[in-house]
Automatic annotation (TrEMBL):
Residues 29-345 form the Aminotransferase class I/classII large domain. This is Aromatic amino acid aminotransferase. The modification N6-(pyridoxal phosphate)lysine is found at residue 218. HAMAP family: HisC_aminotrans_2, Phe_aminotrans_2.
């Protein structure tokens, strides 16, 4: 019998969002916070062109994409580090900082990969409960110990969609010791419309222990290709580069991400439509009598407690796949208008 690390016995496997099909054959996947749009023709063309070169390994340093991202964000090229999705970047970070005897602090509930990746690295998770569905930054600052190496702040938070604003974030960062890395996970940054929610890069600029994580999977619509990145000062970015699996960002992914940056205006117009639909869905739910925490992401959160799994099964009858967290609630992505209508119908029927 092969032997494995004991930690695997206690580690939950990552549960990806599923698809469902209604008895009438309808299927709306609102379980993974993906973009509901097909890729732009210019992006598909770039992928097709890149496909002609896949007998060769990709550029291991993703030089063109790294330069394009540095220019896009006005940061030095050395401060940009890529990974195969931002979940891989989070893993690279944890491999760089985590070991037995160290702590990783994050809010809970938040992105479900944090506990798994922390456990794999050997670090201990310190979960700080949400307060009013939002990161409790004071409690998170208090949770820091001499062993703390990393704090994740997910802003907006997955799965609640809630945000932390400029003044409280600044106060929090002022309290965190300089030898603790704070990673602002901004996977949903492009959907934020509240002007008081800062772009994490404003904090990174004058704080060497603050880094920002972004992804091409959501607003840029490349979830299937796996590209994410970090922007941080050289000790942080070089740690992420060192822990990158060789060639983890493949040739097609690099080409598609570059083409997406070139088509950014068009992609961000699509985000605007999702944001309008978010307002329509949230208002529709509130009119039905639901409590919906204010969301700045491309999803809504319904706290359903013990009825969570029943709700997910109910939505499946409408062909709507949601993301249930048993005993807590369901996260529902904003899709195209037809999918959102199907979800609103399902939600209304659940209440009656
Ligand atoms: N961070 C957060 C908060 C997320 O919700 C997700 C995706 N669900 C990720 C990171 C990872 O995204 P990806 O690996 O596709 O870039």
């Amino acid at each position: 019998m092969p032997r494995f690390r004991m930690i695997l016995d206690t580690m939950p496997a990552y549960k990806p969002g599923k698809s469902v099909v209604s008895p009438e054959g309808r299927s709306y996947k609102l379980s993974s916070n993906e973009s509901p749009y097909d890729p732009l023709p210019s992006v598909v063309e770039a992928i097709a062109r890149a496909a002609a070169g896949v007998n060769r390994y990709p550029d291991p340093a993703s030089v063109r994409l790294t330069e394009a991202l540095a220019a896009r964000h006005g940061v030095p090229v050395e401060h940009v580090a890529l990974g195969g999705g931002s979940v891989a970047v989070a893993q690279q970070l944890l491999e760089a900082v985590g070991e037995p005897g160290t702590d990783v602090v994050y809010a809970w509930r938040s992105f479900e990969a944090y506990p798994t990746l922390a456990a794999l690295s050997g670090a201990t998770s310190i979960r700080v409960p949400l307060k009013d569905e939002t990161h409790d930054l004071d409690a998170m600052a208090e949770a820091v110990t001499a062993n703390t190496r990393l704090i994740f702040v997910c802003n907006p938070n997955n799965p609640t969609g809630t945000v932390n604003r400029t003044a409280e974030l600044r106060r929090f960062l002022d309290r965190v010791p300089e030898n603790v890395l704070v990673v602002l996970d901004e996977a949903y940054r492009e959907y934020v419309r509240d002007a008081d929610v800062p772009d994490g890069l404003t904090f990174y600029r004058d704080r060497p222990n603050v880094a920002v994580m972004r992804t091409f999977s959501k607003a840029y619509g490349l979830a299937g290709l796996r590209v994410g990145y970090l922007i941080g000062h050289t000790p942080v970015s070089s740690a992420v580069r060192k822990t990158l699996l060789p060639f983890a960002v493949n040739h097609l992914a690099q080409a598609a991400a570059l083409a997406s940056l070139e088509a950014e205006e068009e992609l961000l117009d699509r985000v605007e439509t999702v944001v309008k639909e978010r307002t329509r869905v949230a208002e529709g739910l509130i009119a039905q009598g639901w409590t919906v925490p204010p969301t700045e992401a491309n999803f809504v959160w319904l706290r359903l407690g013990e009825r969570t799994m029943e709700f997910a099964d109910h939505c499946a009858l409408w062909g709507v796949a949601v993301r249930p967290f048993a005993g807590e609630g369901a996260r529902v992505s904003i899709g195209d208008p037809e999918a959102n209508d199907a979800f609103l119908e399902a939600a209304e029927a659940f209440r009656s």
